[in-house]
Write the structure tokens for this entry.
Amino acid sequence: MADSWGTGTALADLDHATKPKPRNGRWNGTSSRLTPLPVHGDRLRGNAHGALAEDYAPREGREGARTGRLTMTDPAGSPPTPQAPAPPPSGNWQTPPPPAQAPGGFQIAAAEAGPAPGVVYADLTTRIIAAVIDWLALGIVWSVVWSVVAGTLLLTSGFGLLLIAGVAFGILWAGACGVYFVYTWTKMRASLGQKVMKIETVNAADGATLTQSQAIRRWAFLFGLPAAGVVLGNVLGVLGMLVSLLTLGYTIYLLYTVSQSPKRQGFHDLQAGTVVVKRVA
């Protein structure tokens, strides 16, 4: 019953305000102290994830849902079945291999089989050695003869006549080299250097001995520029050195064309219709 001060009503309101309210049906509303309700064993072990799963998941299948979240497997608990690899395509079709990369740098072309049994195309190294032998022989002869002629003219006629003699002697030397190679190719089928290395220069069509016109044409494309360099080098001075550099570049070009030909035919061989072969039997 309330007094004139309203104490009774106030005390009732105070008692109602301080009395604990039930929450989710878990508190005992008849006491001012909280009474914890029993919980599952996993909550006692501090498994917060399991507690949340039980609170928010449906009751039906709650254990299976919690197991699925914790073990990340199917409800039965077995690991996922690995998928079999895709079967190969049917038929004879196969995946093409990756394209092969071309090797870098200088490569010598593969040589073809010889034109006849027991005959092969002479390799580049053998031909270079044969040419060195020829030029050493010619160079020694030219050096000896020129030393005698130049010494005599220098002592008797002076430098002016020596210059004229150098040009004349250069032309004479170029002609002598031409005669030497044309003669040996048409009469012996090989120069002296080629004889030492057992190779021959023959007609590319049938292997016959070179005709004189073939031999002259081959010499002109092979040694014409070097011979001109020797003649002009005695007159032009610095320009003669440039001619010598041009001769060196042309020689390298001839060697390159030989290395890239399956029949080992250089530019000079193609112009004359010739080929260099070696007998192996």
Observations:
- Residues 119-139+178-279 form one domain.
- Strands lie at 119-121, 199-203, 274-279.
